[in-house]
Hints:
alpha+beta
Amino acid sequence: MPNEIESVFKALADPTRRRLLDRLHERNGQTLTELCDGVGMARQSATQHLSILEDANLVNSVRRGREKLHYLNPVPLHEMQERWIDKFERPRFSALSAIKRQAEETTMADKPTFVYTTYIESTAERVWHALTDADLTAQFWGHANVSDWEVGSGWEHRRIDGSGVVDVVGTVLESVPPERLVITFAGSPGQPAQDPSRVTFTIEPWEQIVRLTVVHENLATAQDHADISHGWPPVLANLKSLLETGHVLPQQPWAMATSAAGDPDA
């Protein structure tokens, strides 16, 4: 943890890197060329700065065809805020944040996007199987994801407490095993979203490891983005543990994430 904090502070210490983060905050998912044009910088210099930001997990990159898109990852910044700011003046800052968030949602042209990348010691086939097998998703997600995973088919996020309740439904938009899966994330069956968010899983094998990138886009509000920013990392940590050790984490990681989010001393 100290090394991670140090890398974040190091990345933020440079004004050029802060400007790159500002550019991505203004419009997420930019190419290197777009970022260079925005800050008047040579590609080589921008690449070096982006590498430091990626090492600090402040920026994630996703390939789409021939393009490489860069996304702001707010999780380390949020953790710094909780550790160094919120615990001292949480009530006042929370009120100001709520006002700011409401204003941003009113004027926001582009809906927020969440990007998360993790590296797993596994194969692409095993990662794909874990993401699409109902029994395995029940183990690491706490819900069974049920579908035939064919393009155009529906999928359901079912509770495993015996009730059979479905908390989330969606449609399979793309299915290219074991490389890419795209689904809509449409809310409860009784209240399907008119403009659902979309989740893309990209699986990239490299020698003995796999790079798994999750992009959750078209989120309705900044609060939705904050909520899933606490949700995806614990789920993917549980998936990583299952594939690398044969068992999930001994405690539910999302319970810890929820507790930390609400505890000013966490």
